[in-house]
User: Fold GntR family transcriptional regulator from Paracoccus amoyensis.
Amino acid sequence: MEVCHIISALQGDHVDQAIITTPPTTASQIYDWLRRRVQTTDLPPGARISETEIAAEIGISRQPVREAFIRLAADGLAEVKPQRGTYIGKISVGAVLSARLIREAVESDLTKMVAQLRPKDGLAAMQAQIDLQKQYLGPDDVECFVESDDRFHRQLAIAAGHEAVWNDLERLKAQINRLRHLSMRVFDRQHTIDQHQLILNALTAGDSYAAEAAMRAHLRQILDDMPQIRQAQPEFFTD
Assistant:
């Protein structure tokens, strides 16, 4: 088990340890397992996936795998092509832009709430994630870094008293997550850490204007990163 998975489990971030420590067996577990592989680009955009091969890999029948494929297709993460098979969907630029716009609007409001509340425990939890991110700067640490990045933003929602809002955002940002895993392999992760620290410093000072501005700048970074990633790997994207 990777260290970041252990940390996440200990911090109570709703990690299903059965998926991490044992092969998935139910349709729901298989869906979570495949979704994770898609979002980390372990299964890259455009890759063909086979019910038969995956069922054989984990030693189960094809039916729960088929159900998981259907859910991935409903999420826009897989595409069933008649007579050809099932393929991992390409990253939708339109879906990324829409989800980013919604996320900026929601998290900017959460940021203003937290700047007014300044909850000591919540701010400390966000700082703990920044400290963890500093340990995840190596080439093999991308998944751990992105998980800690997500926990930083989840802690913001928790500190504002709206954890359920983050859960809603998580369902929206499947396409963003794939792009983030690609960008974190290319761009300096220290820049993201610095942005997180700037947000947190403003929150700690109770400066809602500066905190909101820092959050908006942070969430708009993807607008600069995506064209470069798309140019380098155009086969991964669709409009």
Observations:
- Residues 5-20 have pLDDT under 50 and may be disordered.
